[in-house]
Design a protein that fits this description.
The chain is 48% helix and 13% strand. The protein contains 7 helices and 5 strands. Strands 2-3-1-4-5 form a 5-stranded parallel beta sheet, with helices on both faces. α1 crosses α7 and α4 packs antiparallel against α5. The two termini are 18 Å apart.
Length: 186
């Protein structure tokens, strides 16, 4: 059985830093699809970026997330965001959520506990792929948490602190849940 663990939350809350730290410890990870797609679409000079065409971008992200889910590299893989995140972004963007997204969220199930990184003003910065204000990041966090709960997931909120403490929290929480010792870091 494959265990796909999602680390989610609003933009700029330290998800990618945590994923990178888990990868350095030898765990299999799946990078954030949205950042990869934004860089790709900007390079192509495409309008399929979230600030111009959120619906079209969401479809690209869904396809990529399904591929990443199906091709998870290990028995235990940490994902930087999951399919329910797309639903939350569409809702916050005021767009309808089509049946395709809801069907995918039901079909491609991650581990039932989702690690959530709460908004963290002290580390929040904008960059080429993160254009939201901190207030918008907080709104997205609430929407993402709500969608995961609606999809039947339990949320484990990560405390703010140094990345090594966050890694310890994640691996300690999962030890009891998944017997992580059966899936040691490589």
């Amino acid at each position: 059985m494959r265990h796909r663990i999602v680390i989610s939350g609003g933009p700029g809350a330290g998800k990618t830093t945590l994923i990178d730290a888990l990868q350095k410890q030898g765990y299999a990870t799946s990078a954030e699809v949205s950042r990869r797609l934004i860089r790709q679409q900007v390079e192509l000079q495409s309008d399929l970026v979230p600030w111009k065409n959120l619906e079209g971008f969401a479809r690209l992200a869904l396809e990529a997330m399904i591929r990443d889910f199906e091709n998870s590299p290990s028995e235990l893989t940490f994902f930087d965001r999951g399919i329910p995140d797309i639903i939350a972004y569409l809702k916050v963007g005021g767009l309808p959520v089509s049946k395709d997204f809801l069907t995918a969220a039901r079909r491609y199930r991650y581990h039932n506990q989702i690690v959530m990184t709460p908004p963290w003003l002290e580390i929040y910065v904008n960059d080429d792929e993160r254009w939201q204000s901190f207030q918008e990041a907080q709104e997205l966090y609430q929407a993402i948490a709500s969608v995961y709960k609606t999809c039947g997931y339990e949320l484990l909120e990560l405390s703010k602190g140094p990345v090594n403490e966050r890694v310890t929290f994640v691996t300690s929480a999962l030890t009891g849940l998944l017997s992580v010792e059966a899936f040691p870091a490589r």
